[in-house]
Amino acid sequence: MNAAGRMRTSTALALALASLLSLTLPRVAPAAPAASADSSATSPVEGRSWLNRLFDRYLRTRPHPMEDLRGRAEATADRYLEFAGRTIDVVLVSQVTVFDEDWHAKGNLSTRLFKSLTTPLQSTTGDGTIRRQLLFSPGEALDPLALADSELLLRSLPFIDDVRIMVIPLVGPESNVAVVVETRDSWPLGVDGKVVAPDRFDAGLYSVNLLGHGLAWSNELVHNAASPHEWGYHGHLRQPNPTGHFIDMDLDFEDSWRRLRRRFQVTKNLVHPGVSLVGGGMLEGTDDRDNEGVPRRFVAADGWLGRAFRIGRVGDRATTARILLVPAMGIVRTHFRARPEVSLTENRGYHDRTLALAGLSLVKVRDFKTNFFYGMGETEDIRAGWSLRMTLGYEDGEFQARSGSWLGVGRVSVLQGGQVLAGSLEGGGYWRNGKFEEGVIDAGGLLASRLYLLGAYSQRWYVRAGYTRGINRFPEDRISLGNREGLRGVDDGVLTGDERLVASLETRIFTPWTLLGFRCMVLGYGDIGFIAAHDGSGGGRHVVDGGGLGLRLDNPQLVLPPLQVRLGVRDDADGGDTVVEIVFGGGRSPENFLFPSVKPEPVAFR
Question: Which of 364, 396, 411 corresponds to the end of one domain?
Answer without folding.
Answer: 364
